[in-house]
């Protein structure tokens, strides 16, 4: 009997896949769920029970939170990556980690095929397909939902006919939760105009007033919050999320380019990610040189876009990571952030590597390391070529005028 | 008698310059003030009176608001330029327009020298020096404050000795206002930590609740607000500022690289600029292609940095402007923004050029222009090279393992 | 009867397509050949006769040489585009112009389908497919050679069975000639090692000794060679080719990334293109500013790669062209080039816009526009931030050492 | 008595400096010469004798060849760095290594001052000044030639008056030799037009005919030539130079932007560097992915320009080096190069990491890892957004036309 490994979330589509692969295709189905921070222990247990009830041969739960951070999120922080200056790539990043774990599971089980529940209209199909083509190139990829183009109703009716009992109600919004943020799609996001209503956000605002948090970074990684240290940055992120999430911070709507060309709009809430990215960037602005900041922006922009498009395995990504890692050598210090309902403000930093040290002079007020005469010479030389350019131009135009 | 043109703001430093140039250096002083949107008619008149009282031979007021927009701000909007993803370059941009107008004034008066009141510790000295070196290369540049390194007290005592009567009190914060935002420096901004207190902000928050505004862009330029059209985008910006400013929107602190190498920290409030930049970017995300968005970011980042460093006259800036202008062909439509105290949210757009049109399918839900089979082929080819890369790597490592 | 427009070269593959489309598929075939400079009048006439003999309903010859230059080559010159610093994109560029003309022909004839003779292993299939998807999105694309995966022998045997009489012999090398160079593939290029033998090059070396040519550029375009003016730059290119080609200049082998992921190796000869690109670049190095040169490189690199991948219709290409056009404002002057068998050397330029004017000083010898003191100040400020960086680093490390 | 460390070449300018610093300024002069591959043992000994005769307190010879390679040239090879696609940065690179060694010597001797013999018209003054400002910020920098603006005749007459006996004849060309190439300036290079005559080149052409060399790279570094291994890549470079130099390979004239704004023209011969750079790049084109090649170009371009401008100590250079190092992981293999008088041709490569492996299909001929159907889908999706762009545009224009 041929084995297939199925990426399984317990939702309608992947539930359909279990039954379809088992009963219509005669596969031995091995379901796997990769937790990237969005599921509680209870939810994972429920999903496991559901999988078993559906008749899978084996069901595996992979706890990928730390690896997700180490492999991807770390670099998103180093690069201050926000797609189109807006979206922390919450879903894009975690889909790739899931695909990588599923591919490993296929290798381990020496399965004949791998299946995922993506439709033909989104990004995820490309991310799964591509990681599988690369990691397990000779394994067949089966995508029932995409290939059969089934409607929701058809899936439900098929499952009912197979005696499956589950909650068939369609949620008002499709929600995807993970360590690096939660996406919220549906209704308003399906059009170019319209904001999600208050009740659509998974994390409701429960705090008022204002609160300061202190984030400690070591070589670019968040290691402590309010002087509380964590054994792994992923735990620090989760802790900060409990603090900042309750303020409704980091909510926004993003419209972006999908891999397949259409524009897609999605709401997201990402309190901890947004606070961390802005705090990290603020610290970098104090400790890095001008061209470090500039090149980090350029290169990290590409990193984010290429990751979004599923290209995490292109070796150029390793090269960029080497650059980003090198640039974090001095990104160590504390960042102070004021949290308030729906917004936050970085209020300052403290770092031994701070280049804004008063011993070098104070911007606009005092120059101790150089003289006005030095700047006078600098200005002359700094504009020297453009000055020549205008003199040459004037000569040509003057000559032409005669 | 030798003529000097002096950039004049009416403050302590440039007041000192008038007296110093006239009485110590024997110059005929022609003062000029270039209004880039920060002064009212009354303020300008008062400054003119002050100049005359000090004994200048002529005083000229240049209304540069429209030209400032046409020459610089337009492109900052096209490029969604925020220095280090934070600061709209409020001061950097206007200083250059001022320098350009002063240089023109020097040419018109055929003056022997040009003077500015910059210290040796900031960016402005470089901007003024450099524009003068380029535009009026043979005109002497005089910078009394920088060269003499006078203290505030010394300046005051000199002026008093010359019978000058003016407000000698030092403001708690140094404020610079213009069409594209107001900077606020002093106390907290002189250190790496600390936020400006509520009372330091020139525009106080007077509105509560929430309000929607509709911004209309034509080829990237703001031409109407809430269906009210303006003869020039600069007027639209000023109108939007009256609406959004009262919410305390667009306040932040930026730490950045000065031209001369030190890090400088400055507070700013820029309600209209921040709303316009985010609204414009949102519209672009709907109407431009992926690589237009990507290259605009890269190139506009440089544009902003190079402008900040005073290099507006480098011809590469014209080339970049040609790129940015070309990219605005379809950036036409309405953008909806929700304003609230201290924050705002772009809630959607309407544009005939919107590429997120439901006729092409709905992201994640429906694909009408292509098939799942097409995407399957795409994914295979899109990851083809990386797939080969891993196969080759495996072969080498496998061989090495034997 | 359904109409199909077929891109027709007269070779085995497209000859097969005519018969297949007519006799197996029942189409009315309208063949079209787009001359981008590679065919003589006689060759085009022969191809027309061949098409008619095969039974096409109509055959059209499009003379696209000027348009090819105006639409693409001009910008490749402006950008000094050499893919991977080697290959002038001879074939990539012309394939797109051919696709665009074929698409126009489809629109004109209101054809139901369009056909091309590409295999499934190269770049051209993507270029044709993509231009057709964009320009004529609802027209069916038929690709018999790709879809049927026929061997050469099968094609010949089919054609013979249909009574077709033509030269069925396989050339030792596959050659593609056009205005912007000639590619040569086969034998040696199919492997990673090995150079094409002398006899494989379509243009044999017939000149010895050495010869100077003078190229005149107006705003970046070649308008005269040795003081002989041409009504269109494409004619100047062809004239220069007759001079430089006979020296065997511009031969090389390129290995590059195909659109579909594999690496491909191809020989090419491109005497006029290589001489023009290097001459144009030399002129630019004299008349453009440092950052114009730098940004042109970056942006033109992408332009060349994206063009190579068939993306000529992405609007970002128009934006880049606007940049490149703007940068050519002063690229006017004469360039002197020494030609010799197998090599050439740019020996100098003359231009009114030359920024290397002795009136500004002589590099390394004399400084007339600034003083040593100015440079001293410049050096201090230019390294100011890095100097602070090291002082801060030393402090931290010193403190850590205690 | 105050100590000064003087960078000493034994030429007229630095000879003048010794006497001037000793006799006019009362310094104890410690001369140092840093050999970056341009001097023989005999030349260095002669220079030492000359220094002693002039009366220096100490003279030190630093052999910096290996360190020069390890610190800079390695990365220039990794990045295939040619300034403006022409010049291997022969002089720029070695000047920085010299400055770094001189600064170390200052620290070791705890000298009060450092001196160099640069004029005010070239790049070297900035490179020396800047490295000194950064590495030894509190040490006075003395530049007699720049500051006194002495003519050659004045220097000679002064030295004669001090009884100095040396060759005072001016060479027809100023030559600077080092491991990474030799620059040749004078006469023709002082103007925009004119090639150096045959006799001006330091290495004369003594070989005829043709010769193949095989270069072996390990992770991007040249480790063997024609199967002869070297303990350090710098020795391999020197060995290759003896082979290729005699063919007159790698001669060219470059016009480039100096740090101080003027354009400078310089001849150079760099046989080994040019062969190595092109061979290395050829190998990379076979083993790296498309985006590795593309980003390497972009980032290495900046690296070369920034190095040229003396900014080797900016930490961003370390970050770029980390990127470049990472990208060399698979750059291992043999490259075959045909040498002939005045030219060379890379004829192929052999590498286990070659991505142009026939097992993946042959470009243009055979596709074994994917189907024509896959490419069809790819083309559709790859052009999907631009296709939508044109449909939207047509709708708007159609509507506008009504």
TrEMBL record, chains A, B, C, D:
This is argininosuccinate synthase. Residues 173-389 form the Arginosuccinate synthase C-terminal domain. Residues 3-164 form the Arginosuccinate synthase-like N-terminal domain. The gene is argG. It comes from Panacibacter microcysteis. Keywords: Amino-acid biosynthesis, Arginine biosynthesis, ATP-binding, Ligase, Nucleotide-binding. GO terms for cellular component: cytoplasm. Pathway: Amino-acid biosynthesis; L-arginine biosynthesis; L-arginine from L-ornithine and carbamoyl phosphate: step 2/3. CDD domains: ASS (cd01999). Its EC number is 6.3.4.5. The keyword Nucleotide-binding applies. Pfam families: Arginosuc_syn_C, Arginosuc_synth. InterPro entries: Arginosuc_syn_C, Arginosuc_syn_N, Arginosuc_synth, Arginosuc_synth_type_1_subfam, AS_cat/multimer_dom_body, Rossmann-like_a/b/a_fold. GO terms for molecular function: argininosuccinate synthase activity; ATP binding. The keyword Ligase applies.
